[in-house]
């Protein structure tokens, strides 16, 4: 992104920790046009959506104002825009939620998907909205209330490389263990999938994904959700094998399946591999792409060993991306 405000706003809506925000240099920051762009694109509720929680806005604006104060050399020539100061005052007077409430509350996160140099799509049109809570690592028996690094890495691979784009463009796709649905939204909204089925075992997560389908301007003729308990049959409608009453007449079929951060619990490995096998045997799957943060080498090795027990080993043509933990701002 060449526009310094666009980059800052993209990080802001992804709720990057405020000290790590990429703020324009001092001479650029103090110009009225840049300050106005920051207000309109990041803090004006009439022109910016979805706004981060007030607590995050307060922290981000505090950093921006501190940088502005450092950059002002001549108070008679340079000043902080009234709209930013008024927003700061308003945020300071906003009642604070308790730490417990903040830790449990979901919020809309707006990601900006990266693109290859050949993509002409504008930055704004490549946004994806999820509902999540960055502070929730494990809640209600699931880790799916936040988008993990492996999903961000896989999303970058799919959207910025010719190989990645060819994997999903025009394909019937399925996502296992979707969590926030980030990858499915990316594929359905920007990468040209014919259809995508978003699956997870947790009904609460699927409710959040269903809500965000509308927030992303997508239609359920292209993206649907369904519960899939690993090791059990898939019990959701397909996109094309239904009669007029909506009753499924035959098994769904998929060209490609995606999964990110699925290999985190050694006890779940046999169920995961059994489910992958069902995808190939029952649902005519051609390819499965996994992005895995290798937190435990033994768990990852167990997954590879279980996959290798299938005969022949080529039965599972998996494409692995071993994505190690890192902060990736899309």
From TrEMBL:
Keyword Iron: no
Coiled-coil positions: none
Listed InterPro entries: Methyltransf_16, SAM-dependent_MTases_sf
Hydrolase as UniProt keyword: no
Keywords assigned by UniProt, alphabetized: Methyltransferase, Transferase
Gene Ontology biological process: methylation
Gene Ontology MF, one: methyltransferase activity
Protein name as catalogued: Methyltransferase-domain-containing protein
Species whose genome carries this gene: Aspergillus keveii
Lineage: Eukaryota, Fungi, Dikarya, Ascomycota, Pezizomycotina
